[in-house]
C-alpha cells in the first residue's frame, strides 16, 4: 500500500472528479471489506496469488466476524469459560474418499476441541414435565423424504419453487395444532435455518442440505475450545499477516462505497478513505439491507432486488450458568425439547455441563430464532431470564431450578456489523436471482456466507466464496482471466454473470381471461389494449 499523495495517477483522479478527499486517500490494489471468514480467506487467496498490495477494513477491534466467542461464568478457581456467540458446529465433515468440508480440514489443522453432536440424544418435555413424544419425529422424516425428492424434480425439470411449508403440507404433514409435533418440526427445521418453513424455499433448502450433509457427511461436531472456534481463522490470518500488519485496519467503520469501472473508493466513519483498483465486500445481507453503508452511485436495481429479496435470520443462544452442584438436567442427553403451545417459544435447551463438553461448568443454553429473537432483543435481559426460568421451573419443578449465577445473550439483529445471524433462501427466488447477489458491480465484488449458492448460512459458504472471489480478483489484478479459473464468464471477461432482467414464465398474451385475468392493469400504450378480443 502506498499513499496517493506521492502517487502520480491519483492526481488525475482528483482533477477528473474534482473530489478533494480522493487526494488524501490511501492507495491500494484491493480493498477487502470485512475480516470475517470470507474476508480473511479472500485476502489469503490474494496473497497466495502474489497480490500483496491489499488493505482489509474491519469494523471490530478483532478479526473473525460472526465467528465470535466470549468469556462467561467462572469455574471453581475463578477462571472464565469460553462460549460461542455465533457459529458453534462444524456441519458436514467428509465422505470416505471424496470431498472434505474445508472447515473440517481447518478444525483438524488447529486441533479445535469438539464433540460429536448427537441429534438423536434428545429428551422431550411438555407443559407438565417429561413426556416421550420422540416417536412423532418419524412423521417429519417421512414427509422430508418426499419433500427432498420432490425438490429434486423441481430443480431438474425447472418447475416452480414452493415454500417448504407448502411442500410439507403436500406431503400430508400438518403439525400446527399439535405442540409436540410442532416442536419436533422446529427442531428439524427452524433450528437449522433460523426461519420457519413458511418463508423458506423448498427447492434451495433441500439443495443446500444435500450439498453439505450428503456432499460432505451427515455428521456435525460442536466446538467447545477454550481458545474459541475462530482460532482457525486467526491462525490462517497469521500465515500472511504480521501481528501489527499495516494492511489490516481494525476498528474502522466503512460508511460509503463509491465505485466506477476504474476503481472503488471507500470512505470510513473516521473520515479516512482508501482508493482501490478493486474491492471485495463481505458484509452480511443484513448489513447490505440496512442503510449503514451508502453506495455511490446507488446499486443498480438488479443488485438491489437480490439484496432485498434474500433473507437474514437471527439465531440467539441464551446462556445460563447454574450453581454446578445444583444441576437439574439428566446428563445423558445433549438436547432437551419443550413443546410450548406457542411454536418457537424456548423450544430447545442444550446443557454444556455434560461429560464430553464442559463438565462441572453448570452451563446451559436455550436457543430461539428470528421472530422470538426479535422479541427478546427488544426486552430486558431480566425479563428474558425470568421467562426461561418460568419454563424450566414448570417442567423440572420449582424446587429443582435454582437462580443462575450468570446469564447473557447476544442481540444479533441489532448488531450494526451483522444485522442478523445468517441468510436464508426465500421461496420463488431463482438461481439467476441469487446469482445477482454474488455478481460484481463494476469493480466492486461481493463474497460471504450469503453469496454461496450451495452452502449459504454455513462457514464453508463463507470460506469457499472468499477463496473463489479472492482468486478471481487476483487474476484480474494480475492482468486477465487465468487458465485455472473455470468459472463461467460473463459478457465482459472476468465479470460474474448477472441477470439485469429476471424473467417470469408468463408472457403478456397469457394475461387473459382464460387464465382468470379479467381486468387490464396496464397503462395505455404500455401493454395490451383494454378490452381484448
Ligand atoms: C448465532 C450464529 C450461529 C451460527 N451457527 C453456525 C454453525 O453452527 N455452523 C456454521 O457453519 N455456520 C454457522 N453460522 C454462520 C457463520 O457464522 C457465518 O456463515 C460466517 O461466520 C460468516 O462469515 P462472513 O465472512 O461471510 O461474514 P461476517 O463474519 O459477517 O464478516 C463480515 C465482516 O464485515 C465486518 N463489517 C460489517 N459492516 C462493516 C462496516 N460498515 N465497516 C467495516 N466492517 C464491517 C463485520 O464486522 C465482519 O467482521 C452461525 C452464525 C451465527 C451468527
Ligand atoms: C493459501 O496457500 C496455503 C499454502 O499452500 C494454503 O494452506 C491455503 O489453503 C491457501 N489459501 C487459500 C484461500 O487458497
Ligand atoms: C445418539 O443418541 C442415541 C440416543 O441416546 C443413542 O442411541 C445413539 O447410540 C447415540 N449415537 C452416537 C453415535 O453416540
Ligand atoms: C437431494 O438428495 C435426495 C437424496 O439423494 C435426492 O432424492 C434429491 O433429488 C436431492 N434434491 C436436490 C434438490 O438436490
Ligand atoms: C460517497 O462518496 C462519494 C465519493 O467520494 C461522494 O461523492 C458522495 O457524496 C459520498 N456519499 C455519502 C452519502 O457520503
Ligand atoms: C437419565 O437418563 C438415562 C437414560 O434414559 C436413565 O437411564 C437414567 O435413569 C436417567 N437418570 C436420572 C437421574 O433420571
Automatic annotation (TrEMBL):
FAD binds at residue 254. Its EC number is 1.4.3.-. Signal peptide: none annotated. Pfam families: Amino_oxidase. Its cofactor is FAD. The keyword Oxidoreductase applies. Keywords: FAD, Flavoprotein, Oxidoreductase. Residues 37-471 form the Amine oxidase domain. GO terms for molecular function: oxidoreductase activity. One of its GO terms (biological process) is polyamine catabolic process. InterPro entries: Amino_oxidase, FAD/NAD-bd_sf, Flavin_amine_oxidase, Flavin_monoamine_oxidase. PANTHER family: AMINE OXIDASE, FLAVIN MONOAMINE OXIDASE. Belongs to the flavin monoamine oxidase family. This is Amine oxidase. It comes from Endocarpon pusillum.
